[in-house]
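Suppose you are handed a protein chain with no further information: no name, no annotation, nothing but its sequence. What can you learn? This example shows the usual starting point.
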Amino acid sequence: DYTEYNPQSREEWGVKKQKFIDSGFALPNLPYLIDGDVKISVSWAVARYIIEKYNRNDLVGKNSKDGVNVIMIMGVVRDLASTFATIITSEDYSQKIS
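A reasonable first move is to predict its three-dimensional structure. Written in structure tokens, the prediction is:
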């Protein structure tokens, strides 16, 4: 079971993020996972935690070659996401998509 949270604005996320900081969350960021006393952010760390908690190493490949390929793909996805995030969070976003 989980509760999904999608902030509707930067301001709303800022308030929630400050609450995380105040509660001792090491790296408050989106996405995040709180599982009892475990508080994790960063997409790959969240995924890795779930994989290990439920003993689903098959999700990262059948062997070390597959595992390395998964890591490479995650790197590309992270790079793309970072580029998109930079664009959509810029002040002149509306001008960039025109």
